[in-house]
Design a protein that fits this description.
globular
């Protein structure tokens, strides 16, 4: 029983910034790698960024490198995604995900939040 609740989505002008939050709760609160995915209409889910359990290592999709920063505050059981220089193509529903690492690769565990919508106006 793991619950993920995203927040922070909304409407932002192209070139602007937005920070998403994902709070984790449930009967089992063991640490895990976590990731942010996004899905735009007509597209498959795309892994945007992930962060290791300790927060020491992060990785980003090529499409957002240099514009996004994933971080976590384990004391608050919260993961963040700060997005800068937003483009219209960044518009999507963003999902928080529990995952795990195998070597340097991130894999989804199948636990998802409900998603938070990010809309970017031109």
């Amino acid at each position: 029983q793991v619950q993920l609740v995203e927040s922070g989505g909304g409407l932002v002008q192209a070139g602007g910034s937005l920070t998403l939050s994902c709070e984790r709760s449930g009967s089992i609160l063991s640490m895990s790698a976590m990731g942010w995915y996004r899905q735009a209409p007509g597209n498959s889910r795309e892994l945007v960024a992930f962060i290791t359990t300790s927060g020491g290592d992060t990785n980003y999709a090529d499409s957002v490198k240099g514009r996004c920063t994933i971080s976590r505050d384990n004391a608050k059981n919260t993961v963040y995604l700060q997005m800068n220089g937003l483009k219209t193509e960044d518009a999507a529903n963003y999902y928080c995900n529990l995952g795990y690492m195998r070597g340097t690769y991130y894999y989804s565990s199948g636990y998802w939040g409900q998603g938070t919508q990010v809309t970017v106006s031109s």
